[in-house]
Amino acid sequence: MMKEFLEYVVKHLVDHPESILIEVEEKDNNHIFKLKVAEGDIGKIIGRHGQTATSLRVLLKAVAAKEGKRAVLDIIG
Q1: pTM attached to this predicted model
Q2: Which of 27, 33, 35, 61 has its CA 20 to 30 A from that of 55?
């Protein structure tokens, strides 16, 4: 559910939703989400002063907490 949620939100932020790639690594109760987007969309994901990236991380952590898990978002250029 966390991956689908993240993909849904990111698709609505970028110009090239077909280039979104989300990889998930699971270690114990931690989920590490590695997000890759098109080069031109990286600025839209990070946002001014990192506000969009921070908001994505907060939302992802909230969804994870609801499932009793922990989540980390890494944005890869």
Answers
A1: 0.88
A2: 27
Collapsing DSSP to helix, strand or coil, 39 comes out as: helix
Q: Under a CB-based contact definition with an 8 Å cutoff, are residues 44 and 52 in contact?
A: yes
Give per-residue burial for 27-58: e unless 16+ CB within 10 Å, then b: eeeebebebbbbeebbeebbeeeeebbeebbe
Q: How far apart are CA 46 and CA 64, in angstroms?
A: 21
- 4-18 tens-digit pLDDT: 999 999 999 999 999
- Tokens linked to 51: 């506000």
Q: Which tokens is 63 given?
A: 């969804």
The full set of domains in the chain, from first to last, is 2-76 (3.30.300.20)
